[in-house]
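Data card: per-record layout.
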Amino acid sequence: MERTILFAIDDDEMLAAALPVVGAYARRWDAGVRVLHVARPDAPNGAGRRLVTAVVDTLREEGIAAEGEIRPLGPGDDVGAVVAEAGAHADLVVLGSHGRSEVGALLLGSVGQSAASRLEAPMLVLHAPFQPPAPAEPRTVLLAVDGSPTSDEAAAEAARVASGFGAEVRVLHVVPLATVAAAGVTETDQEAEGILRRGVDAVEAGGARATGEIVTDPSVAGAIVAAARRHGADLVVLGSRRPSHLGGLVLGSVGHEVIHQLRRPVLLARHVRQAAVR
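The structure for this 278-residue chain is written out next.
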């Protein structure tokens, strides 16, 4: 069955960095690409159409099946809801933006309240330009695990990507320090080792090479960013509960912080419904 990638674009500043990544995934998975632009009411006439056409033409020149679509943003519409509706049947949703425009900030800052709760597919967030430049095909993948069902889904996604590209996976478990003074860490050594082992085993069962490490840090996002830089990760894979309220990805979550601090491709794994989360 042919896979479909939805590539939601906002501006042309990010295309030089994002297009090679989208092309690499499309070729590796033999997937078609739907290029989506959400047009603001005040956008210059024809600008969105020219942008979409240029991206579609570039992908087609590389032998990738691609088609374009423009959806207008009406009064009161949520960008994320529009993206979620368009990506309802996609196997991967790629959100790409430089992040400077209003729509770009929504795509990267919140992925939209509706998109966060409605999208089932994995989301690859490309906050370009990447610093330092990342290869189109990931060579080192950093997977953050915490032992939850969302973490299990992230491990499966990391294994799928790494095995497809022949990449190595670095599995990271961050033991967060308790926020109460003198309360110490929130997990025993045995619990932390079990969580890490579970992540490594899941990646290896998916056909990818994996090594693991445990760090203790008061900031989970900060520890993930530091590990990604330390290992030279080309891709960071995270689990996501995708809450429907204005929290989680929207305000100050680990995923949100990592995306903005790291400026590297971040893959948020397939949606795990709240009922399945323990």
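Known properties of this structure: Residues 149-165 form the longest helix (17 residues). The mean pLDDT is 82.

See the next section for split statistics.
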